[in-house]
Amino acid sequence: MEQNVMDISVVIPIYNEAENLETLHRRLTESVSALTADYELIFVNDGSRDDSLPRLRMLAAADPHVFYVNFSRNFGHQIAVTAGLDYARGQAVVIIDGDLQDPPELIPELYRKYREGYEVVYAQREKRKGESWFKKATAKWFYRILRRITNIQIPVDTGDFRLIDRKVVDCLKRMPEKNKFLRGQIAWIGFRQAAVMFERQERLHGKTGYPFAKMLKFALDGITGFSDKPLAWVTKAGFCISALSFVIILYALCSHFIFKQTVSGWTSIIVSSMFLGGIQLFSLGIIGEYVNRINKNVLNRPLYIVESTNAETDGF
User: Fold this and answer.
1) d(CA 133, CA 139)
2) How far is CA 74 from CA 65, 85, 176, in A?
3) Alpha-carbon distance 119 to 166, whole Å?
4) Pick from 215, 196, 189, 130: which is nearest to 157 by CA?
5) 89 burial class (0-12, 13-18, 19+ CB within 10 angstroms)?
6) What is the spatial distance between Cα 13 and Cα 80, in angstroms, rounded to a whole number?
7) DSSP secondary-structure letter at 18?
8) How far apart are CA 122 and CA 161, in angstroms?
9) Residues with Cβ within 8 Å of residue 10, at least 6 apart in sequence
10) Cα distance between residue 145 and residue 142, in whole Å
11) Contact 31, 104 (CB under 8 A)
């Protein structure tokens, strides 16, 4: 089905954000309507357990610029953003979270930068308010480690809050992998990219949908999706441990047959066995992460299932 192209689409993944929706809608409308009257706000309800869906339906009934996509269950933040991109009709598409930590008032500045000729304009965090030192530290380390071990320039201190051109959206639709890491995919696509600095605010209501376990999975998706260096590290570790084991075997043989001494040490044997066992399990875990990515892509299940929507898609 042929779609009408709009000036701006805003994609907002929603998970238990009922208390934020009215304020979010008002602030988004004020920011985007100042740029153009030809816009749409696409809210993707990612299996929320609160009143997010009824409130989205109310907003859609009252505002013709509002569209909602309701998943059959929770599929995850990156999948929700991907679904929003599938439905988006804008020549420029903004991705922003629904917790109001990323200020909608920054969208006009992103758009001005976009009008200068950049296909990707990402919001880069100068400060992160209302977050624990642990989350700030781990996020800082993760972005810098990821940048060192990948061959693409993924901007540090950035999330998914950004504006991308239609050509970037079309490229993303042709990237079928199931373990989505959109900020890495967008960096891999290339084109001209620029940053706009901002201060990330505290969450207005509710609690984060990214506990430590989800953050860890997200980090693994980013690393395994854009770097094969962990596999190289496993190979090098195996080579080094094999070389060390060979040296120890030579020492034991020399002690027994030449110096007529038996190497003793029950404790050292147990410790070395536990150490080698740990290395082996860790290595299998790394390999398993890559195999899991292959398995998910081979199964080729749909990324998401839509239960209800008032939007139209072009079939991607």
Assistant:
1) 10
2) 25, 17, 19
3) 8
4) 196
5) buried
6) 6
7) G
8) 6
9) 28, 32, 39, 40, 41, 42, 90, 93, 94, 96, 107
10) 5
11) yes
* Contacting residues for 110 by C-beta, under 8 A, at least 6 apart: 94, 121, 123, 162, 163, 196
CA-to-CA distance for 133 and 131, rounded, in angstroms?
7
Total-model pTM: 0.72
Q: List helix spans (H) across 9-51.
A: 21-33
Contact 33, 26 (CB under 8 A): no
Beta strands in 34-111 (DSSP E): 39-45, 66-71, 90-95
Please report, in tens digits, the pLDDT of each residue of the chain (316 residues total).
345 777 899 999 999 888 889 999 999 999 999 998 999 999 999 988 889 899 999 999 999 999 999 999 988 888 999 999 999 998 999 999 988 888 999 999 999 999 998 999 988 887 766 566 666 666 666 667 766 767 777 777 777 889 999 999 999 898 888 778 888 888 888 888 888 888 776 665 656 655 656 666 666 666 666 666 676 667 667 767 767 776 776 776 677 667 666 656 655 665 666 666 667 767 777 777 777 777 776 777 788 888 888 887 654 4
What is the end-to-end Cα distance of the chain in Å, rounded?
11
C-beta neighbour count of 110 within 10 angstroms:
27
Closest CA to 164 of 227, 126, 107: 107
Q: Measured between alpha carbons, how far is 42 from 13 in angstroms, rounded to an integer? A: 8
> Which residues, at least 6 apart from 242, have a Cβ–Cβ distance to it below 8 Å?
none
